[in-house]
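explain this.
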Amino acid sequence: MAKLKIKKNDVWIDMTPMSDVMVLLLTFFMLSANFVKNEVVKVVTPASETMAKVPTTATLDITVDPEGKVFLATDKTVTLEKALDQMLTERDVTLNKEQKQAFLQSTQIGIPVKQLPEFLTKNHEDQVKLLKGAGIPTDSLTNREDQMSEFQLWVKALKKGYKDWYNEQDDATKAGAADRLEICIKADAAAPYATFKKVISELQDINESRYKLVTQYKKSDE
C-alpha cells in the first residue's frame, strides 16, 4: 500500500511588527530614563529598613565622605549656573567663559570658590585628586556672627537658582516640575558623626529643616 505523502508548506513569519515594537520600546526607555552622573566622591551609605524612594529630579544632594568632607551636587544645570553666578559675586571671584563651562560639566561641588580659577585650569586627573582632598568649608568665613559659611551660601544659592528657573517657566512646564529643590543627605557609614551633626546644624541655621537621609535598604532579618 502506498504511503500517504504530506504536503510540506514553507512557514513565513512577518517580523516587521516585532521590529517596530522593539524600536518603540527602546525609544521609550531612552527618553524616560534618568541618567546618573558619575560622581567623583562615592560613599557607602548605612543600611535601614525604610523603603521610601529618593527623588531622582530636582534634588540638592549633600554628600559626606568617610573623612568628613562635604560635597554638593544638583541635577539641574541651569540651577547650578545661576548659583555659580551668585557665588562668584558673593566671593568677588571671576571666571572666564571656558572656566564656567568646565565647572558646569562637573558632577560635584567640593572646591572653595576662591580656589576655582586655579582648579579649573588643571587637567581632569588633577582636578579629581584635588576634589577628593578638598570639600566645601562648613565653618564661618570670618569672625562675624552674621557671616554664613560657604556651605550655607551654596545651599541658599542653589535653592534660589532653582526657584528663579521655576518662576521663569510657563504653566505647562511647571505642571510637570517640582516647585523646589529637595535636599538629600548621603553620608558614608564611616563618616564622623560630628560632621554629620554640623551639616544638620548648618541647614537649620538657614531655616532648611526638611531633608531626606539616603540609606540602602536592609531586610529586618539581616
